[in-house]
Design goal:
Shape: elongated
Helix content: 25-40%
Number of helices: 5
Structural class: alpha+beta
Strand order of the largest sheet: 7-8-9
Number of strands: 9
């Protein structure tokens, strides 16, 4: 983004393509360090114009709400107006969140999906159940990555796993997916 004539952020097309690439690669399962290396290997300059990309820069891009068109005001504030010394706002002054403040580079859905994925990628994330196809399936209607779900039948003490689209609200049972994969593999083996 650059400052537009109206004072609002204005998209810089070349930079926007890099931001979209970072989000796309992350949603395809690439790590932040892999993305940083890829950008350096392909001579793509960092936001500061340097050849080197830091993992923290990629993380900052993936978590910054401005790319979905929102704005958080007063992330920093001036502590001394004479020296113009700035400080990161840690609750000393109020912050304001403005939705749909400017034209987004990525969709709100993709931004939200990345935040969910980032949480799942963290070392502290604990998954209690195993989903064989988690992060590997996309919704046939809208293309979003499917989330895992499970239900427990108390009488039979049996777990049923399924994958669901948070947007379309449709579910696919894991045993149906396995059936399809087995049929596909048996068709391939026949050739």
């Amino acid at each position: 983004y650059r400052k537009g004539a109206n004072g609002l952020p204005e998209i810089v097309p070349e930079e926007a393509e890099i931001v979209r690439l970072i989000y796309r690669m992350f949603m395809e399962g690439k790590s932040q360090s892999y993305i940083a290396r890829y950008l350096m290997d392909n001579n793509i300059p960092s936001p500061s114009g340097k050849k080197t990309w830091q993992v923290s820069t990629v993380e900052s891009i993936l978590t910054n709400e401005k790319y979905k068109g929102d704005a958080r005001l007063q992330k920093t504030f001036t502590t001394n107006y004479l020296t113009k010394k700035m400080k990161v706002n840690e609750g000393e002054v109020p912050q304001y969140y403005v939705e749909n403040n400017h034209e987004p580079i990525i969709s709100k859905e993709m931004w939200e999906d990345c935040q969910v994925q980032k949480k799942k990628n963290s070392r502290s994330y604990q998954r209690t159940l195993t989903y064989l196809y988690l992060q590997k399936l996309r919704c046939p209607k809208c293309g979003r990555i499917l989330a895992g779900g499970a239900s427990h039948k108390i009488k039979s003490d049996k777990w049923y796993f399924y994958y669901r689209c948070e947007k379309c609200k449709n579910n696919i049972q894991e045993n149906k997916i396995e059936e399809k994969i087995k049929n596909l593999l048996s068709d391939i083996m026949e050739y």
